[in-house]
# Entry
Amino acid sequence: MGVSQPISAESRELDRTIGDLTSALGDPTRRAIYIAVRESGDPMTSSGVASLFGIHANVARHHLDKLAAGGYLEVRSGKVPGGGAGRPSKRYLVVADAVTEFPVRSDDLVLSLLGRALTRLSPADAEAMAEEVGAEYGRAMAAGLQGDALEAGHRSMRSAIQAVADALTAHGFAAHAERRNDRLRIINDHCPFGDVAAEHPVICTVDRAMVRGMLSELIAGDVGDITTESSFATGETFCSTAV
# Structure
């Protein structure tokens, strides 16, 4: 049996650099935005990027700020020439020699395919599909909770909400339950759908439907109205699903 070799500082630094590059540029849209800003030569605004790529300004700003946070873009504030009166705009330009090669992620093709498929569906069809997939997956998740102290179908709403939050956390959502203004809520501090949800907010329907699917298996009777109050896709700092 071989003896494992210690990891050198150079290797650790390389791993960290690759991880940073993948996080910042692994998303195909974000990588394309970086290339566009770099090839432009002039600072670009989020509205300019949004117009160029046909995406919402909030989505463009999300990608630009991610690139800036990674040290790949520099942010400048000031009036845009010819922009008229109003608040100074943030302008983004490439940090010199920040990136020379672009990492390729194995899921790029799948993400691109999903994004293209969603754009070809009508909003109603996309939401119906997201609701169906989310609810079905939620019911399957609830089935895995059987054997707990309270059997499925016999939980109180509060107990069921906590079980749902725990299950979502196990699936990468970093969720917790809270009660506020006489409504129970599930707060997600992390979205495993990442930038796909930012570009296609209909993905948030999957999250809400998963909650509905789990609750339908965990309690008796109608689960009532379930609404998305806030989400990362709309620029919020967390996702909130009210029951």
Remarks:
- The first strand starts at residue 44 and ends at 45.
- Confidence is low (pLDDT under 50) at residues 1-7.
- DSSP finds nine helices and seven strands in the chain.
- The radius of gyration is 22 Å.
